[in-house]
Give the backbone structure.
Amino acid sequence: MTRLLVIGGSDAGISAALQAHEIDPRAEISVLLADEYPNYSICGLPFYLSGETPDHRQLAHRTAFDGIDILTNHRAVSVHPATQTVDVVRGANGRAETMRYDHLIIATGAVPVRPQGLPGLDLPGVYGLHTMGDGFAVQSRLMGSEARSAIIVGAGYIGVEMADALRHRGVDVTLVSHTDPVFPSIDPSFGRLIGEELSRHGVRVVAACTVERIEAAGNRRGLTVSGSGGFAATADLVLVATGVRPDTTLAATAGIALGPSGAIRVTQRMETTIPGIGAAGDCVETWHRILQRSAYLPLGTTAHKQGRVAGENAVGGARLFAGSVGSQTVKVFELAIARTGLREAEARTAGFDPVTIETETWDHKAYYPGAQKLRIRVTGDRRTGRLLGAQILGHWRSEVSKRIDVFAAALFHGMGVEDLNDLDLSYTPPFSSPWDPVQMGAQAWMSAVKTGADKSFTADRPTNLEKGTQHESP
Amino acid sequence: MTRLLVIGGSDAGISAALQAHEIDPRAEISVLLADEYPNYSICGLPFYLSGETPDHRQLAHRTAFDGIDILTNHRAVSVHPATQTVDVVRGANGRAETMRYDHLIIATGAVPVRPQGLPGLDLPGVYGLHTMGDGFAVQSRLMGSEARSAIIVGAGYIGVEMADALRHRGVDVTLVSHTDPVFPSIDPSFGRLIGEELSRHGVRVVAACTVERIEAAGNRRGLTVSGSGGFAATADLVLVATGVRPDTTLAATAGIALGPSGAIRVTQRMETTIPGIGAAGDCVETWHRILQRSAYLPLGTTAHKQGRVAGENAVGGARLFAGSVGSQTVKVFELAIARTGLREAEARTAGFDPVTIETETWDHKAYYPGAQKLRIRVTGDRRTGRLLGAQILGHWRSEVSKRIDVFAAALFHGMGVEDLNDLDLSYTPPFSSPWDPVQMGAQAWMSAVKTGADKSFTADRPTNLEKGTQHESP
């Protein structure tokens, strides 16, 4: 009987355990958690803090699983491949115990990046947002002391979601972004629209500002954040959301190799460099299906997929992780934004000859009530016509994220931009057009590349492709 | 300079003309329309009649196109391949003229099926719903004479949409369905839920009833519809929506071969059996990508795709129509229903060993407000694990139609059910889960087939293939 030990009880760890049990119900499976929150949706913390998800327990769909032993407050402190054992400390002041494994899966996740040399990071009132504990600390501050204002440092996924969440709760929010516009993981034309949406909902957006110092606000309550360009603002709390890095301490000290990105190196079978030890989730490098190399892409969706593969292989399977294409989506107030694949600069670095064309169209037939404009950016390779990536921005009811999934499925199969027109997508006037907006974006790209209109296209400005093209659906 | 003549100015005809112009801007392109409504969205008629689309002109996104000569009220009456000419009658009482072509595209569409031998079909107050003219006639009846009640014969796409539309307008609606439950193009478990949704919104649903007679209502105003099982009801108007058949008169008399379904036989290049004559849309047979044979599948989406291919090839292109996978969707009151691929009985007839598993799950993370249940039916081949089809039913805001599109993209590429888990679909709690419901449906299928649970899953298995024209153009 295989004894499978999983270190980590978040997305990757739980998925691994579940799939191992599914494939081999007789396997003896234990999941070690450093805290007491197995299977909690960390992605849900902004909604807990906004008040939309009132009870934190809602964030866990399930916390107990048939045939899986969930060991909360069990912190793995060292892994010994030679003896196939893990030293585990139980509780805050527990003694180390030793647990044996036949197969081990490391799913230790990520830890927040702490901006190097930023003074004041450890002051009371400065928070990260990566664990349930972080969430409780922020919640407690918001509830307990009439916190009415917040400064968010970082305008990526967590930063913009938290700006939305805190405004939902009536808190004054200043969002400080290193980049201009905010939200650098999509193209600037969309970033600007996100910035406008944030401003429209009362967020003070400070772009192109490098935070230099956090300090107690002198004789006033709260904290003062100072940055480049003379920026200074004071608020009751500061949230630092400047990304994550892989938590690899345990793996590295066990002699497991890391990759160039600093995350654990794994095969597509989710095996580490030590036999019998797999790894998955935010602590590992991810195979990128378009780049055909590994990269660091910490995402819940990927963690689940990798965990499932690692779990299956731990009990004798031979499954491969098929790779990420970089699909992501976020809701910011009334907007949904999604991306998949490569952006133009990423594609150029990877050796492609990318062209990006932006199209604006309706999310469904304009004659049916409630139609909203969608913006679609398609990136393809000029030489081969291959689809390389796409970005969509629109109303949050415009099925933006499932539309990016059509692009994601196309990318998965290496389709050409033109090939998107071959996909038999569903249509009824309340939901789409006979050519879905995804296909209109593809047609606009084809037309622009054919006519050379792309050569006059500057990345920040949508071209006017209205005339002479077919991308607006008859 | 190529002279391209297109007969028909609806989806296929306009798409053909647009793409021909896109590929060869010097081509001389004329589109002949029997009526005066080029590029009108016939799928939009229910929304015009519900009042949601107040002005019928909104149904046409554009009616004029650079480089394309739109000839309204030009009825093609005969095609002469030997001389490459078409005889055309202009207006109601016009004389025949002859027009020359280098390349001809026939896009004459479909005509409503008239239930054979049904007395009363031609009485005043009995309507079809296939042309703008039909729409105006119904509209006029609804507006002019205080029509307060309607009987709809046929509970397919048009029937259920019109039930919704007329209820929206406050009309009493009786929907008579030959099948039980209604809406036979999806599985009965979903059909029953659609029936309940119709009833919940005040539609009187009469299932398993064959209409036998329509007659004037004696001394009362209106029409009486009688049917099997003693059914009789009287209403101000009767709408007959019992499917369509290809309009092939022009093609057949020109010597163009029809296929076994009675529609025009075409290659994947959308060429008929006569050189220089292409055809597309509801008048032709459609290549079914999963069945790997042609079938009659009249749909707006397909018509656009076929038209685009026919148009490109007419001006020297060499494009192939990649085939339909049978994607369709409809909104009925608060529900969205979508299907793609084969249903179980269709798959069995085609030689597969199909298994269908139904899963219920949330459309997005249940902790985020507004979560709704989705039902997903996945059909796969037991022997090979290949995905064969899927059906989804849920709230109309649950991105049902774009979720079916993920299945459609997977079907296009011949993916296995298990492979769906490899797709890198986007996630944020307001829109999905780390495994999208599409993937949860796939996992449930895998699990059921593995454990043999599918062998006891018979309750909702469709008993036989619906015969005739189950697929109406939305």
In short: The CA atoms of residues 209 and 229 of chain A lie 7 Å apart. The mean pLDDT of chain A is 94.
